[in-house]
Amino acid sequence: MKAIKRVRRNKLLFLAITIYLFLLGTMPDKAIQSSKNSMYYIIEMLEIMPVIFILTSLIEAWVPRKAIENSFGENSGIKGTIFSFLLGSFSAGPIYAAFPVCKMLLKKGASTSNIVVILSAWAVIKVPMLANEVKFLGAKFMAIRWILTTTSIFIMAYIMSKVVKKEDLLHEEEKQANENAVLAIKSQYCIGCGLCTKLSPDTFIICDKKAKLINENIQLQNTDNAESINNTIEKCPTKAIYFRNISSF
Ligand code: SF4
User: Within 10 Å of residue 170's Cβ, how many Cβ atoms?
Assistant: First the structure.
């Protein structure tokens, strides 16, 4: 059962392995060439992705949801679009490095249109590359391409925000995990400041200088205090409060 779940969760990986095995049996030289190419990209990813994951985790843990919502959220307006464009344009690294960053921003309240702007600008408007473009293709070419690309990005972001809803971007497993998750406290992180008991007095108490849950089985969909709990999760200074997936028990 666990094996089936694992295959389902990594279906693309298993599909790729199956194709490689098929190639190995039918066209071994192509299989070897493909494996070499894949290894090249895997090594490149292994060099880049750890740094991206660390940065993403730090931002996720320490940048308040409110700050992300204000800068990149639905109501951030033109300011959010400009921030997103600048973030994408000045970022370094390949486009796949942008995906975990965008997923984290999305989870923290960024809007779909701003995610499209970040991803698109990251992919095609790298500021250091513009100088190279001028060198090889000329300033006029670069300027016209930049204007047309930028205009297309904003049009695309608008259309995507109308067609793709934020909930659609959540992975099916993630949606299920969110539904099954229960409120929990990492007591080793808790410093007993008592802020949670002030913000959500019906949910938290302090006991032996550590926060405890009044009810151990709180799920987002079965509590009337969802807003207050989310606010408390955001405000906890040590990020000790979180929703734990029941399947990880
Ligand atoms: S707000 Fe966080 S650190 Fe403070 S008591 Fe509550 S859980 Fe502990």
Answer: 16
